[in-house]
Design a protein that fits this description.
Keywords: ATP-binding, Nucleotide-binding
Family: Belongs to the heat shock protein 70 family.
CATH topology of the domain at 20-210 and 484-503: Nucleotidyltransferase, domain 5
Protein name: Heat shock protein family A (Hsp70) member 12A.2
CATH superfamily of the domain at 20-210 and 484-503: ATPase, nucleotide binding domain
Helix content: 25-40%
Number of strands: 24
Shape: globular
Structural class: alpha+beta
InterPro entries: ATPase_NBD, Hsp_70_fam
GO molecular function, one term: ATP binding
């Protein structure tokens, strides 16, 4: 049974909890992280006793990338029919010229799409100012992710002929989302075919911070980025504490994972947690401040681990819109300053794909804190040299120099792209930590947490009083944790007052 409350805490009724009927240790799980900037999915199709590990789809689309998420952008044809999603959609639209682009619908700014309460009836503007209902756009994104996940799973010889009905679907939602946001996502999930009236008990929603912390609590001590890990740790094959469970097309590596030797954990408790022992970071009564450093926004949520391992949300701070895109925007301003006199503006307008490739290259620099080089496209060089020699563009720009086809950026300049964002994050953390919430750990997750500059700054500012943790591959923590919560829904505090539809279905 679950208790349904009104806004004042008064008990309205009690209903049978259907959420836990299908979910469990041996459930088939697909988790979807529908992010405003990037999206992805993870899945687990093997019972725990068979050694099944969570798999994550890798995305690249021939761009030399290998990422656990793809841009949340979608392309429709002139008739409003779905064409492409993610990297493929962005590349295809950028390749269109003039009238062809005007005929299509391309959406990528999903932050604007979820403003206001009556989202289902709202419309969202495409890049060319054409409009489509927000519900249809979100539905087609979920439909693509669902179909692609099933296709990926079926492609393996042992995958089987699974259908959507075979899975428990776990959708992650930002901690600051309101009830109407979640109602809207439920409607989109049903229309996208994730669940039907007969299987609606197999749809779960979990908070991003809950999912991320759940994954971190599962890790052994060497599953975190520490001083003992080099800056390249995230690119190396994962240790046994966090096996490399990515899945790119038909490449499955479960057998390799099974054979890896498990390290001896640092035991501080005999309490069983997810089938293993809890270490220092996982003891009951510990309080964690989860900092979800996303592409668009940064979220701050404090959780407590209760007796038995369930998570209780203690405090949610307002989000801050200084995520990864803000840092990228500072980098673009830097390029605009180098290629002055309208050179960069003209290049950005006429060579969208090349500009996007430079942004992808820049995103790889998150893991370093030193002088870096980024390749300069040949057509940008040609455009610049119509005005003057390429080297002279760098004469008056501090922290930048030309190096035989590449733009060299000094360590100090690279750090400056993060300055304002880090200042705001530090201020927000101090405000939360001064609330006497008895926090012991600061947990950094999300794409921007891959930044060595960010991690080092937070450690320098708060490391003497709090333990700062960041899992290897922090961008994957939410997806992997969502799968764990799909199999262990009891890990979220059972008595938390969620809205009725969120906890049970009428």
């Amino acid at each position: 049974m679950c208790t349904v409350y009104d806004d004042n805490g008064k008990i309205l009724t009690k209903k049978k909890v259907l959420l836990n009927v299908k979910a469990g240790p041996d459930s088939l799980i697909i988790s979807i992280d529908f992010g405003l900037g990037f999206s992805g999915y993870a899945f687990n199709v093997k019972p725990r006793q068979e050694g099944g590990e969570t798999q994550i789809k890798r995305w690249s689309y021939g761009l030399g990338l290998d990422t656990p998420k793809t841009p949340t952008c979608i392309l429709f044809d002139e008739h409003g029919e779905f064409m492409k999603f993610g990297y493929e959609a962005k590349t295809a639209f950028n390749n269109m010229r003039g009238g062809e682009a005007e005929k299509h619908y391309f959406f990528e700014d999903f932050n604007i799409a979820i403003q206001g309460k009556d989202i289902s009836k709202q419309t969202i503007k495409a890049a060319n100012d054409k409009s489509m209902t927000t519900l249809k756009v979100f539905t087609e994104v979920l439909r693509f992710l669902k179909d692609d996940a099933l296709k990926t799973i079926r492609s393996h010889p042992e995958g089987g002929e699974f259908t959507a009905d075979d899975f428990t679907w776990v959708l992650t939602v930002p901690d600051t989302w309101k009830d109407f946001h979640k109602h809207f996502m439920k409607e989109a999930a049903v229309q996208a075919g994730l669940v039907t009236d007969a299987t609606k008990d197999k749809l779960m929603f979990v908070l991003e911070s809950e999912a991320a912390l759940t994954w971190c609590l599962k890790l052994q001590p060497d599953g975190f980025i520490t001083q003992n890990h080099s800056r390249d740790s995230q690119d190396q094959p994962a240790g046994a504490a966090e096996p490399d469970t990515s899945c790119n097309g038909t490449e499955w590596i479960c057998e390799v994972i099974k054979k890896r030797k498990q390290p001896k954990p640092m035991l501080f408790s005999e309490i069983d947690f997810f089938g293993g022992k809890m270490n220092e970071t996982q003891r009951d009564g510990k309080r964690y401040l989860v900092v979800n450093c996303g592409d668009e926004n940064i979220y701050f949520t404090t959780h407590e681990v209760l007796e038995g391992g369930a998570l209780k949300t203690l405090y949610e701070a307002p989000k801050d819109n200084l995520g990864g895109k803000y840092v990228e925007e500072k980098f673009k301003q830097f390029l605009q300053k180098i290629f002055s006199n309208g050179v960069w503006d003209e290049y950005e307008q006429n060579f969208s794909n090349e500009v996007q490739k430079m942004m992808y290259d820049f995103s790889r620099l998150k893991q370093v804190d030193e002088d870096v080089q980024i390749s300069c496209p040949g057509n940008l060089v040609m455009l610049a040299q119509k005005q003057k020699q390429i080297e002279t563009f760098f004469d008056s720009v501090e922290g930048a120099s030309w190096d035989d086809g590449s733009i060299r950026i000094s360590r100090e300049k690279l750090r400056s792209f993060y300055d304002f964002s880090l200042q705001r994050i530090t201020e927000k953390l101090r405000q939360i930590l001064n609330k006497n919430l008895n926090i012991g750990f600061i947990v950094l997750v999300g794409g921007l947490a891959e930044s060595q500059i960010l991690r080092q700054h937070i450690t320098d500012q708060f490391g003497r009083q709090y333990k700062v943790l960041c899992p290897l591959r922090p961008q994957e923590a939410i997806l992997k944790g969502a799968v764990e919560l799909g199999r262990n829904p009891e890990m979220v505090e059972p008595q938390r007052k969620r809205p009725a539809w969120f906890r049970c279905w009428s």
